[in-house]
Amino acid sequence: MVNRFERILLFGAGLWYLGEGLLGPLFAVFTERVGGDIFDITWAWATYLIISGLLYVIVGRLTDKMHNAAKLMVAGYVLNAIFTFGYLFVTAPHHLFIVQAGLGVAAALAAPTWDALYGEHAGHKNVGYAWGLADGQSQIIYGVAVIIGGFIVSAYSFTTLFIIMGIIQLLSALAQMRILALSRKT
């Protein structure tokens, strides 16, 4: 049985995965459209991974020491929405590096904190099932989002895609904000 805390976390994360997944492999096409080449694509993606990876460790440690770590998670979700809208202003590869760095910081604030909260509040005796539910949801939503993102870009534009992504990310942040009220009660 999924408890209320877990339901909120899964719903908010599902929206995040939907918003993120819309860009998926189109990231390479977008990078080329703003004048980037194969090295810009790899550097931009590496920027995201290295920044988020380094900060995951720091934020994970901080999360363990905080009384209400949900605030960090929500801050990460809000920052993610802001930097997702940042794609609208990318006109050159170096702008993309800034957006990717910001998204890396956002992911580092949100992901380890989400994991800690989910691990603490998942209402399952079977831990494997709880994490299978969380990870399976993300894979399915990413897969569907990639298809939807491809449709949006082919039928409309990257601008339309980034606006939709940003709105979904804002909704995701709002959904996760409900955790703050629950965290105060526990």
Can you tag this structure with a few keywords?
single chain, 186 residues, mainly alpha, Growth Hormone, Chain: A, 7 helices, globular
- The number of helices is 7
The shape, in one word, is globular
Rg to the nearest angstrom?
17 Å
CATH architecture: Up-down Bundle
- Average of per-residue pLDDT values: 93
Total DSSP E strands: 0
CA-CA gap between termini:
19 Å
Low-confidence stretches: none
Query: How is the CATH topology named?
Result: Growth Hormone, Chain: A
Helix content: over 70%
* Whole-number count of domains: 1
Question: What is the element string, with H for helices and E for strands?
Answer: HHHHHHH
Structural class: mainly alpha
Q: Assess the beta-strand content as a share of residues.
A: under 5%
Q: What is the top-level CATH class? A: Mainly Alpha
User: Quick one: CATH superfamily?
Assistant: MFS general substrate transporter like domains
Instruction: Report the biggest beta sheet as strand number plus sense, adding barrel if it closes.
Output: none
